[in-house]
Amino acid sequence: MKRRLGQILQVLLATLLVLYVADWIVLRVKTGGRGTSTVQVEQFLKSPLKNHKEEFDYLGTVAQPCVPSLFPHGSEAPCWWVERHKIQWVS
To answer: What's the gap between Cα 4 and its chain centre?
Structure first.
């Protein structure tokens, strides 16, 4: 039982590794090494106040860099994720 579970885990990890490397290669070929896009997101500032209260201030719309891929690469999130999370909280 444990041996079979170990084999399944190895296959899953190998599949994820192959998917990540293939995603990186497609990203580099598709974008010519540039690899970044931008998505407009709204930023809000969350400031703590006394008595466990918080104040929220609108900071404006900012161009958030992202990569057009399935997985995050470098320090940038994938564009499909940023598109679905267009509101960012800054503390």
So the answer is: 33
